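Quick check before the chapter quiz. The format below is the same one you will see on the exam, so make sure you can read both the input and the output lines.
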Amino acid sequence: MHGLVAQALKQDPVPVIRVALENITRWKNSGADCDDFDLWRKALHGGTDETSTRLRQSSPFPGVIPQEREKILAAFP
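Here is the expected output.
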């Protein structure tokens, strides 16, 4: 899934980053929070030295590729 998100970022990064930041804000406002949200914000605003493995565990990209995501998740029940 993250490969598809990476393609979307290459094609047009602005809407992908917007969706990710909106997801993080929505999750925080709903009471969900983790340290990785702040790391993601830093990365989305210009980069970070944190490893991609850690950040993939708390990806803020749901909604960027909704149809593809559903197909991938359905393939792994």
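If your answer matched, good. The longest helix spans residues 13-29.
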